[in-house]
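Table 4 source record.
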Amino acid sequence: MHVAAEEIRAEAAVLIDHHARGAWQPNDADRKAAVALFRFLETGLPLDAEQIRSALAVPEPAAPVSAGLLALLRSTAGLLDTTDVADGPAGRDAVDHVCLLLDALALSRPDGR
């Protein structure tokens, strides 16, 4: 599976912007996935594909993870599976942007503030 780091970075930047402007309101499943990954990142370990897949595998009560976030996280997991790409500057930048998005979602309030 070929995953372009630049595409992941761009999509993460779009979601960060939409969230910051209030154009995208994450649902409970989005926040739960972000919180699970945020807690993992707080351990100081780098984000890895298995951690993303584990966070996405948790059964959701009502609404599933938003399509855009789901696609982004799956692409990021694919990128992280490709070590040579993930370890390059573009891969690290893409993962950093995804982590910024996860931070913003995990720290956001359910009412979008």
